[in-house]
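Hi R.,

As promised, here are both runs. First protein below:
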Amino acid sequence: MLLRDREQDLLDETAKWLRESPSNRFYLVIDELHSYRGTGGTEISYTIRAFLDRIGLTPNHPQLQIIATSASLSATDGQKFLGDFFGVNTAAQPFRVIDGTTQEPVRAARANVRLFQQHFKNLSGERASDDSIEALATEISRKMDLVEDNATEIFDKIGLHDALILAAAAAKKAHSASARLTSCPLTMEDIAQHLLGSHESSVGHHCRRHHPTFTDDLRPSGRRSQAESDPGEPVAYLGR
């Protein structure tokens, strides 16, 4: 975008609009900020700074409003990462962080899923398809007298997602490397064993279609946060 000729008019007009009035404010919004780490994160960070310079702004400019969301940045020590990423001096704690509430997974979810343990295992010997998953969901809906009529809503109703989070937390705790590593990679077989007591589980087949790899990003709880700031004050939304 910074290099293509066809984008230059847009950048020029944005810079002109910002110069016209100090009340005109540019909003920079970045989702999943915690994912911008390492070499890739450094590249994005410098690209953002080059973009801001192109439209006549600096990271500390009063006409710039930064909003970022994250599931894992700490509200207490995340200022350094925010400052490094956006190029902002954080000595005065310029980012206002509003931490969200914690939503614990439903503890009964694993028991709900285990009611259909054999149904899930019956699919383990075949390659799970959309049709077989839909058929399983329909059977669960019939047995539990649910009003939901699609697989996603049915699995949500019985708490499959919460059950997987709880099983992943248990699998991580039991993993032989958990005491040595901050990030503990898990296989679907690890999670299935703690969810259904067996390595063979079509729950794994179903989730692998949407989540090829599981790590400790499957946390036993989640936070949703939001933040507001005064004009010209960078903002960070932390949590999920």
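And here is the second one, sequence first, then its structure tokens:
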Amino acid sequence: MSNTSPQHRRAHARNNKSTGRNPAHRPPLPPPTSPLDFALGAVTFIAKRYLFIEPKQRAYIYLAVVVVLSLFADYMPLPNHYYFVQKRNMFNQYGPKIGWFWTTLLLSPFIYLTSMVHHQQSVGKAVRDLTRLAVATGSWLFWTKMWVCASFRF
């Protein structure tokens, strides 16, 4: 008896009716993923992987990256005609002066994404973690201004 016999088809139809499944009606496919969704998914995946590494291992990774990049900078100097090497480029002029701005600009999305991953999409807890950064920024501004004022007085 072949699999396409009338008895087999009837039995298959009875099984599908009893389970409520209809092979002709498949569940719809999800909509296509946009490039932004793909990029956010990739960043979230990487942040999740980084977030759950033990702090000691993270410190070793950070140390290794700093050492490798420092050696690269020492032994592979770039020619002076590159824009980023010149002392008068915009980033070298304003980057150190507003360093906390650059740190906050890069750190805020990282804190938000890792907080969303760690706290299972809780926006309230992500805002709480970003508020910590805002408080640290405020205290940094306060204490740097206080040291500047103290240096002029004494």
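A quick note on the second one: The radius of gyration is 29 Å. Let me know what you think.

Best,
J.
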